[in-house]
Amino acid sequence: MFRIRSTITPSFLEAVLLTLMIITLMAVCIIKFNAVPHMPILLAILLLITYGLFKKVPFKKLEEGLVEGSKAGLGAIFIFFFIGILISSWMMGGTIPTLIYLGFQFISPHFFYAIVFIVTCVIGLSIGSSLTTVATIGVAFIGMASAMDISLAITAGAIVSGAFFGDKMSPLSDTTSLASAIVHVDLFDHIKNMGWTTIPAFFISLIGYGILSPNKEVHDLKQITVFQEGLLETGMIHWYTLLPLVLLIVLSIKKTPAIIALALTSIAGIIVSYFHQHFTFGEVLNILFSGYTSHTGIEVIDSLLSRGGINSMMFTIGLVILALSMGGLLFTLGIVQSLLMKVESLLKSVGSVITAAALTAIGVNTLVGEQYLSILLTGEAFQAQFQKVGLANKNLARVMEDAGTVVNPLVPWSVCGIFITNVLAVPTFDYLPFAFFCLLCPILTILTGITGKTLTYIEEK
Q1: What pLDDT was estimated at residue 147?
Q2: Which residues pair with 457 in a beta bridge?
Q3: H helices within 32-73, ranges in order?
């Protein structure tokens, strides 16, 4: 988006006022009126167009800014299409149900919080959706914690940490794909690079949950048993259903381009499905577009397994196009440049640039409460700054996830925060101190900037 030239040079005060107006507009719409983020972004676009016309900017220039901004997301959009196909093919093939079933094998009477964290990590990785993990497996764990009369706040913290570990590290996650695509980094290189901050955060969190776990027996495993039996009844739990996952791992090791890897493993999932299900070619095409629908009769199982398809990605794709179009206008009108020029003198070192990017992602999450916007705006605003200090783009992609993706559930008025509180019936401020993984990631990413450790420079191959 930095290829977009500004048509005017607004004053710093004008840039700040417009930015505050946009933030206020989106915050009020999302928090007070519970609107989907698409609508306030569209209103913000209209506000920027009005400002541009007032400043005598030709409408054609404004339109070009919208188009150029949206072009930056085309790579992510094509990956989203294939992620939707992959999820539905892995559902019908049994890969994801088998991974979820195996996750439940970790359940143990001891170290309850640590087990909750591990299982939600496994399932989050399997399905690539934090909110789906919270709304299904998370609800089951909250029920168990309530039955055992142990801390719901710590249980919720472990659920959120595990779910967002999966959201951050799964190749099926839309936020992971978005972060890599927006700064033009290979998806699997991005996931590998995130390991430098994610793995320490994982083990520190695991130790913390192990220490906090109550020393008592788990007597009520009924809800977990219901999940396991329901999964077995689908007839899709087999060892061979994991072959598409093995193929994906092999392709990622060989650094196969993400779209090719996703396409090949989707085909593998479809082939595997014919060992235990017999869909017609027309049914397969419909599932790949509309998603897989489970019919076990068990509501929580059907809710967990009924997902995927190209159509499921349209919400995210629409948001990406609108947000990037807004970003294109912000650059066309020189607003972002005006803001960055004011602080550019402070962004001379590697540590200061990484810290500023992390604080920006946290700030967008806190002020606006929108996960995707924190990734999109941070990625577009800081690419040039990272290049100036010699940092490769995959460092920025990691910061966007460490301070963007996993911070959203910690904000009570954010999209994720509101959803999680409603589903688990645990206030955000109650589980926030115990969402160790989400708290550690932004701290660790800032520390890597200060120390210079695990960073990749442009000269490095």
Answers
A1: 57
A2: 391
A3: 38-54, 59-71
